[in-house]
Amino acid sequence: MGFCRKTSNAKEEGKKEAVYLRKKITLVRAITLTIGTIVGSGIFIAPKGVLKNSGNVGLSLVVWLACGVLSLFGALSYADLGTSITKSGGHYIYLLETLGPLPAFLRLWAEFVMIRPANIAVVSLAFGRYLIEPLFA
């Protein structure tokens, strides 16, 4: 997304130009956003723990496959919600339309107070670990 300036008429030369964001997602940006959202940072942290706790490579691949199938079910559920509820707003609108205002409000506040900060903390810790590990290991 880049910033653009609206073109002005001759009458509006003395006024400030408005700055706005272009609503443009190219195919490459859409693919990288989708992969980044699906894969996230867990792919850099989880393989070692899964292999360590499963005991062998075959079982760890089965665990990864099972988790992939579960993720696929979640993605298909969101695809169905996204096509049947066309309003923008994500989780909030889906819960508002299906369960009512109270669950939607509670989910929104849980996202704001607990889920997003915890996610940012985990990603920051993983980034810090992988940034420092080559330098001091």
Automatic annotation (TrEMBL):
Q: Where is this protein localized, as stated in its record?
A: Membrane
Q: Which domain of life is it from?
A: Eukaryota
An annotated GO cellular component of this protein is:
membrane
Is Transmembrane helix one of the keywords UniProt gives this record? Answer: yes
Name the Pfam families for this protein: AA_permease_2 (PF13520)
For membrane topology, the record states: Multi-pass membrane protein
Keyword Coiled coil attributed? no
Classify the main location. Answer: membrane
Tell me the protein's name.
Solute carrier family 7 (Cationic amino acid transporter, y+ system), member 11
Instruction: List the source organism.
Output: Chelydra serpentina
